[in-house]
Amino acid sequence: MVSKDQRRRQLARQKFERQQQRRAQQRSRSRRRNLVIASVVAVVLAASGAVWASTGLGGDKSTSAGSSPSASTASRAKDPCGKAAAGSPGKKQWKTEPSMNISTGSAYTMDLSTTCGDISMKLDAAKAPHTVNSFKFLADQHFFDHTKCHRLTTSGIFVLQCGDPTGTGQGGPGYTIPDENLSAFGKKGSDGTVTYPAGTVAMANTGQPHTGGSQFFLVYKASPLAPSYTPFGTISPAGMKVLQKIAAAGSAPADANGNTAPNATVVIDKATVSKD
To answer: Where is the composition biased (Basic residues) (predicted)?
Structure first.
């Protein structure tokens, strides 16, 4: 006999699948590339027992399970960040992935000078060479400079998403790169997810294989996700403090694009990738 809890989970999954189909049709009609963290469904353990919940971000930037993400309890917190440097995001695009110009045997560091503080991260060129090479190329081209981090998730998964010069979740560099290092966090659990640890830097994508571009996300708290997002770096302890400050300020309700923007004004004034 099917229990009420099992039935509730079954109905939630069916509803999720129907919505995903509708969203896929909408994307096809509009032909918009939408680089975001794809929807995932995970089991969240609550004090009262297991509850089926949507924890991811849909391919069309709306939450799955049919509801907009709630603003965090800190949604009215004071903006802890400063004023952005003068300048605006670039608009340059490229048709193809840049040629390999890094050494996979060397160590690289990406430094983000932001309005909220400096975030430094070690990049794994050995396990994610295409990704690190692309980020070095884009940083050298000043692609990330003056771009706003457009999404903060505060429920289910805990990430800050950046790297889109349009600030809408739909922008990119004009080319895509292959997925890499997807087995970094072990085998999938029974719900199809693995845990992306706090401090992970990973690629966003459209929900389809090999569709990463320039958008990336910073994990500020361990998050269950499908192993579909290339992990390519680790945030420094000092950078994590900045990230936690941003997260503590909470997020706004979803906008017209489905983005839950951080209440903190997070702008990347300058991004650099350097060989150690």
So the answer is: 1-12
pLDDT of the chain, 276 residues: tens digit per residue: 556 666 666 676 666 666 666 655 555 444 444 444 544 433 332 222 222 222 333 333 332 222 334 444 444 578 999 999 999 999 999 999 999 999 999 999 999 999 999 999 999 999 999 999 999 999 999 999 999 999 999 999 999 999 999 999 999 999 999 999 999 999 999 999 999 999 999 999 999 999 999 999 999 999 999 999 999 999 999 999 999 999 999 999 999 888 999 999 999 999 999 999
- The Cα 244–Cα 255 span in angstroms is 23
Alpha helices in the chain (DSSP H): 4-30, 129-140, 237-248
Distances (CA, A) of 103 to 107, 127, 177, 253: 8, 12, 17, 43
pTM: 0.77
Residue 145, domain extent: 70-275
Specify whether the CB–CB gap between 96 and 178 falls below 8 A: no
Contact 114, 107 (CB under 8 A): no
Please, what is the Cα angle at 164 between 159 and 169, to 5 degrees?
70
The answer to whether 131 touches 177, Cβ cutoff 8 Å, is yes
The rounded Cα 8 to chain-centroid distance in angstroms is: 29
The reply to whether 266 falls in a domain is: yes
Q: Are 236 and 122 in contact (CB under 8 A)?
A: yes
Q: Which of 37, 79, 56 is nearest to 266 (CA)?
A: 79
- 196 falls within a domain: yes
Domain-embedded: residue 258: yes
- CATH number of the structural domain spanning residue 193: 2.40.100.10
How many domains does the chain contain in total?
1
Residues forming beta bridges with residue 122, ordered by sequence position: 109, 234
